[in-house]
């Protein structure tokens, strides 16, 4: 996992071709909306569906860094756990409402990510990765030490899930899991559309250029550090939001949110789903969350299987699950075309 | 300094420890000319070039671009001022299309303005227009949607120069533009540089003597980190010191 570049598969179509913009954008967004609607219908519980979307959000944010900028960050857990704590503390101690808590988590995620990013990108390659690892470990111990605030090992209990309210008037009560799912789903689609927009912006196309050849990008006039820091910030904001939503889902902010394992989890989802494809992040998150849910019930050592799945995907499916879907689609189309031409 | 000098160095020095790669080089590149820097291996051409592009910070002396001191400006900040460079070893965005390579290059000139992340990249029509214009000039329009890495080597070298053009510079810095090119492709590059010389000021480092002699207005010959001779091609060709230091080496 040392070299961020070698972890980035030959970029998928989505990453390379802003030229194929608008129609593709609409197609993938529709696919996402469809997925978001179908998920709770096919899954045994809406809570599970909400968990998938929350992790898909975190994986998508990770993808902005790994797939589009070529930065392998082990710091995602800091932003996820940090977002969960900040939202929870705002609600518990300051009686903050839903939106204040979520925005607080995003601002915190963006700010921390900007600092971590600014320091980590002073080095490249393996040293960059090591720096994000070091920050991740540090954040864990900070959370562990500040047990008066975070609950330490016990986690932060009794995290509320306030209703959607404007000026004190409750509009939607989110205590029903299905309603909460709908709320998470709306936010997820908004984040997804925003992320696509970012990728197809001048900024996003520059990130891809930096991933492809940083030296040339700098020679063309880009201050590549600014771009990487902004990428980190955006990624941190989205991850912080996901963390806050997760705490509200569980009514609890466990210490494991900010552990290194969380960063690993998010990275694995991103890679299994397919770097360089935002929809892939949904597939990756769904795959891992479901696998965990199904297997942990029958076998406590299910993480071993996860390792096998990861090895399989990395070796045999260079584009991740999304790459697999794409090549399947191409094969079917080619076969159909063949059948049509051959009498 | 007079207005017709676009780039000037005063006593430029670059030391690697005790070794002086560039030892007091003073260059004056006149606007609208093609100025070549040549010299045997290890003469300090590339080190000088790196000081001009901002890749290396000189250990002494100054670099002035259009009368402005740029000695300590980082490479990316020089693009906005009107300096653009190409690389000796082709350095493209291999997996991106030829057009996207040029579009990103055109966008780079605007520097931090590309940080806008809420608008589609295509919204900046002018960058696409610049890309298309350069595609045409390089005769690469037919390959616009090909990945840069799939171009032939000669075409990649041409695109390499095009990337610098996309910045709409006033000074083009070319680092061995014919490096690694086959005999068949070299005339294409020579013609291209000759053409560019009519619109831009071009400063190039080159190994290939016949190109340098045929297109340059001024040639600076470097030897052991210093300027040995400077002048128009016929003067340089006739100079005995150049013969012994550079041409003689080949014989």
From TrEMBL, chain A:
InterPro entries, per the entry: ABC_transp_permease, LivM-like
Localization terms from the record: Cell membrane
GO cellular component labels: plasma membrane
Primary location group: membrane
KW Iron (keyword) present: no
Membrane topology (UniProt): Multi-pass membrane protein
Superkingdom, taxonomy of origin: Bacteria
This protein's UniProt keywords: Cell membrane, Membrane, Transmembrane, Transmembrane helix
Bilayer-crossing regions: 24-42, 48-66, 128-147, 178-195, 229-253, 265-290, 302-321
Single GO MF annotation: branched-chain amino acid transmembrane transporter activity
Pfam families documented for this protein: BPD_transp_2 (PF02653)
Keyword rRNA processing among record annotations: no
Name of the protein in question: Amino acid/amide ABC transporter membrane protein 2, HAAT family
Organism: Caenispirillum bisanense
Organism lineage string: Bacteria, Pseudomonadati, Pseudomonadota, Alphaproteobacteria, Rhodospirillales
UniProtKB/TrEMBL annotation, chain B:
UniProt cross-references to PROSITE patterns, sorted A to Z: ABC_TRANSPORTER_1, ABC_TRANSPORTER_2
Gene Ontology CC terms, in alphabetical order: plasma membrane
Pfam families: ABC_tran (PF00005), BCA_ABC_TP_C (PF12399)
UniProt KW Zinc keyword: no
One of the record's GO molecular function terms: ATP hydrolysis activity
Family annotation (InterPro entries): AAA+_ATPase, ABC_AA/LPS_Transport, ABC_transporter-like_ATP-bd, ABC_transporter-like_CS, BCA_ABC_TP_C, P-loop_NTPase
Domain ABC transporter: 7-249
Keyword Acetylation: no
Highest taxon in the source lineage: Bacteria
Keywords: ATP-binding, Nucleotide-binding, Transport
Name this protein carries in UniProt: Amino acid/amide ABC transporter ATP-binding protein 1, HAAT family
Organism: Caenispirillum bisanense
Record lineage: Bacteria, Pseudomonadati, Pseudomonadota, Alphaproteobacteria, Rhodospirillales
């Amino acid at each position: 996992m040392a070299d961020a570049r070698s972890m980035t598969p030959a970029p998928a179509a989505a990453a390379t071709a802003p030229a194929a913009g608008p129609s593709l954008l609409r197609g993938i967004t529709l696919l996402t909306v469809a997925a978001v609607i179908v998920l709770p219908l096919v899954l045994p519980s809406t809570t599970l569906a909400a968990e998938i979307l929350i992790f898909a959000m975190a994986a998508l944010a990770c993808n902005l860094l790994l797939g589009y900028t070529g930065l392998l960050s082990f710091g995602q857990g800091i932003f996820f756990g940090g977002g969960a704590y900040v939202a929870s503390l705002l609600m518990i101690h300051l009686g903050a409402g839903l939106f204040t808590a979520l925005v607080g988590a995003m601002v915190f995620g963006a700010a921390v990510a900007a600092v971590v990013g600014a320091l980590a990108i002073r080095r490249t390659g393996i040293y960059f990765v090591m720096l994000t690892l070091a920050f991740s470990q540090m954040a864990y111990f900070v959370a562990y030490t500040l047990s008066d605030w975070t609950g330490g090992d016990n986690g932060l209990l009794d995290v509320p899930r306030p209703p959607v309210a404007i000026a004190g008037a409750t509009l939607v009560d989110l205590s029903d899991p299905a309603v909460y799912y709908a709320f998470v789903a709306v936010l997820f689609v908004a984040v997804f559309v925003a992320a696509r927009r970012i990728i197809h912006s001048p900024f996003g196309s520059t990130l891809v250029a930096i991933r492809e050849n940083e030296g040339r990008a700098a020679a063309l006039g880009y201050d590549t550090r600014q771009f990487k820091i902004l990428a980190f910030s955006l990624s941190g904001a989205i991850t912080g939001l996901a963390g806050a939503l997760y705490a509200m889902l569980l009514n609890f902010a466990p210490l494991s949110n900010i552990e290194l394992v969380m960063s690993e989890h998010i990275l694995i989802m991103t890679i299994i789903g397919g770097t360089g494809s935002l929809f892939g992040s949904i597939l990756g998150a769904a795959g891992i969350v479901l696998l965990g849910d199904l297997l942990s019930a029958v076998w406590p050592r299910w993480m071993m299987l996860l390792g096998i799945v990861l090895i399989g995907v990395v070796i045999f499916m260079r584009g991740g699950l999304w790459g697999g879907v794409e090549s399947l689609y191409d094969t079917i189309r080619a076969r159909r075309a063949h059948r049509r031409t051959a009498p | 300094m007079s207005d017709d000098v676009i780039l000037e160095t005063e006593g430029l020095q670059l030391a690697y420890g005790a070794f002086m790669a560039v030892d007091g080089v003073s260059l004056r590149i006149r606007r609208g000319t093609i100025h070549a820097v040549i010299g045997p291996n290890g003469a300090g051409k590339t080190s000088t070039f790196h000081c001009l592009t901002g890749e290396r910070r000189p250990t002494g002396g100054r670099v002035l671009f259009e009368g402005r001191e740029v000695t300590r400006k980082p490479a990316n900040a020089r693009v906005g001022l009107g300096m653009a460079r190409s690389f000796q070893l082709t350095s493209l965005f291999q997996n991106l299309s030829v057009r996207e390579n040029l579009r990103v290059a055109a966008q780079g000139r605007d520097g931090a303005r590309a940080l806008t992340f809420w608008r589609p990249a295509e919204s900046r029509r002018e960058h696409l227009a610049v890309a298309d214009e350069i595609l045409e000039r390089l005769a690469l329009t037919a390959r616009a949607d090909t990945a840069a890495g799939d171009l032939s080597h000669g075409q990649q070298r041409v695109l390499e120069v095009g990337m610098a053009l996309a910045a709409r510079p006033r000074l083009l810095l070319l680092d061995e533009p014919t490096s690694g090119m086959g005999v068949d492709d070299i005339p294409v590059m020579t013609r291209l540089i000759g053409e560019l010389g009519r619109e831009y000021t071009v400063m190039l480092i080159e190994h290939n003597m016949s190109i340098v002699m045929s297109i340059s207005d001024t040639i600076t010959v470097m030897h052991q980190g210093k300027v040995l001779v400077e002048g128009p091609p016929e003067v340089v060709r006739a100079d005995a010191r150049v013969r012994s230091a550079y041409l003689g080496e080949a014989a």
